[in-house]
Fold this sequence. Notes:
The protein is an all-alpha fold. It contains three helices and no strands. Helix 2 (35-45) runs antiparallel to helix 3.
Amino acid sequence: xxxxxxxxxxxxxxxxxxxxxxxxxxxxxxxxxxxxxxxxxxxxxxxxxxxxxxxxxxxxxxxxxxx
Length: 67
């Protein structure tokens, strides 16, 4: 059975929110040139790779970037 307990690994306390900084951080992760976009490109390219060694390398690079 699966139980989902939604809690953070470390407690987070934000004293003064900064929306401009938050937008910059989010764009780095989720924007077209961000980390998430790059890791998804690596993971999608692995399916067209004919060599198993390089396919594993693309998988390693893609999963490392998304963590």
